[in-house]
Design brief:
single chain; 323 residues; alpha/beta; TIM Barrel; eight-stranded parallel sheet; 13 helices; 37% helix; 16% strand; globular
């Protein structure tokens, strides 16, 4: 993939696709990050997936050792939860700074707390936002890029359609832009570019991959599911997220009567993990996931689909012919 104008070379190096493997709670770990980066897309994981900051130290050491000397690997990223209730943030941030993660993606709060420290060693900061208002605040905080979490995304999601989200943000932001939300095919990655995004954010399409930390029943449910099997609710974490209905029912919830008044609290990620252990998330692009397979095979298929979409003839409506 050729470098795009205005994008840091560190992020476009060795990319086969303009795509980031989205960080997914209790799903993304070192194996997935390393496999994604070696396959030609940016790999990432959430810091809270490591049970302690000491575990995070070990994960970062392994990822860095595996990828830093690999001339063919793409970049990688770590996702920091910057919500005020996250008591681990200071320690996790110090760990990330020690390892000089090339890309840090903030979520669930104001990124200003981390920007200066990441920039000090030459790192790049993208902010995960789910509304135009939050995008404006992230820009004001000095981030280098924005991750637009649009309607249909798995995990903590947004309510704005990707078509509208990119258009409105591009009116005040001309820097790096990532679009997430039901993007599970190479055609969808290309569509994100056409809308004006520089990268696509892919999560659901990787939940069932061989390198995923997800338990096998979770992977099987994702493979079997379609868009109608997904529903949004605040009832698990206090923040609106998209869930697999079957997992809600199996965990004893009534999808028609979820506790939507729950308040968010990220003070202990492992306590939060208990809520996610048997209640599983996925996005509306779940219908494109058909098997458990290695990340490398998934990326190969996405590249084939993406290349076909790029080469697809343009329809000239005025003449009624294919141009």
């Amino acid at each position: 993939m050729k470098p795009k104008h205005g994008l840091p070379a560190a992020l476009t190096r060795n990319l086969r696709l303009p795509a980031i493997a989205a960080p997914m709670f209790l799903v993304s770990g070192p194996d997935m990050v390393i496999a994604a980066s070696r396959a030609g897309m940016i790999g990432s994981f959430p810091a809270p997936n490591a049970r302690t900051t000491a575990d995070l130290e070990a994960w970062l050491s392994r990822i860095d050792a595996s990828l830093s000397n690999d001339p063919d690997a793409a970049a990688w990223a770590v996702n920091l939860v910057v919500h005020p209730s996250n008591s681990r943030l200071a320690d996790d941030l110090a760990c990330v700074v020690r390892h000089k993660a090339p890309l840090v993606i903030t979520a669930l709060g104001n990124p200003a707390r981390v920007v200066e420290q990441i920039h000090a060693y030459g790192g790049i900061v993208f902010a995960d936002v789910n509304s135009v208002g939050f995008a404006r605040k992230a820009v004001a905080a000095g981030v280098d890029g924005l991750v637009l979490v649009a309607a249909g995304a798995g995990g903590h999601t947004g309510a704005t359609a990707g078509f509208a989200f990119v258009e409105e943000v591009r009116q005040f932001w001309d820097g790096p832009l990532v679009l997430g939300g039901a993007i599970s095919t190479g055609q969808a990655i290309r569509a994100a570019e056409i809308l004006g995004a520089d990268f696509a954010y892919l999560g659901t399409s990787l939940i069932a991959c061989t390198e995923s930390m997800a338990v096998q029943p979770y992977k099987d449910m994702v493979v079997a599911a379609g868009a109608e099997d997904i529903m949004p609710s605040k009832g698990i974490t206090g923040v609106t997220a998209n869930w697999l209905k079957s997992s809600l029912i199996a965990a004893g919830y009534d999808p028609a009567n979820m506790p939507e008044d729950k308040r968010p609290n990220f003070s202990d990620a492992q306590d939060d993990a208990k809520a996610w252990k048997n209640v599983w998330s996925a996005g509306q692009g779940v219908g494109a996931v058909r098997a458990t397979e290695p990340v490398a095979d998934i990326v190969d298929r996405l590249v084939t689909e993406y290349d076909a979409a790029v080469a697809r003839p343009r329809f000239a409506a005025a003449e009624g012919v294919i141009a």
